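JOB MANIFEST
job_type = single_chain_structure
chain_count = 1
residues = 155
[input]
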Amino acid sequence: MSKQPDKRSHSGQMLPRESARKHQGPGAVAEDRSFVKALARGIIVLEVFNVSGEVWLSVAEITDRTRLPKPTIMRFLRALQGMGYLHHSENRRRYRLGAGVLALGYAASEPFSLGEIVRPYLSELANVPASVLGNTDVPFYSNNQMLMQKGLLQD
């Protein structure tokens, strides 16, 4: 059995449904009784806005990008709009993310300090050989401040 390539959006990012499959693995949704498929599909609808890079999406665009049936998409759109996670413009006949998504993002980021957020990226950068980076200015984090070191990686 040959592995099929990941399905990607126009911008090259993995489509939400494919991303969910990759994280769960084939058949995992059916086998895991604690996995709520309807909730996952609703999140897939929200993720379409992140993957597309577009602010406003039509029902047809959302349906096409999620590969979910249009009646299912319509139910999710109404529910997400009613909860404040999506906003619908009658004039545009399109949806965009609502303030509820922003509130969730803010709540998720609040307990993290800047250090906690950048630490994994800086650790990854620290493992890059100096020959790859060359004579590069390198950011580092110290005492709750982001600092730049000029020419840190000179040989």
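[summary]
Residues 25-29 have pLDDT under 50 and may be disordered.
The helical segments are 16-24, 28-31, 37-52, 59-66, 70-82, 99-109, 114-126, 130-133.
exit_status = 0
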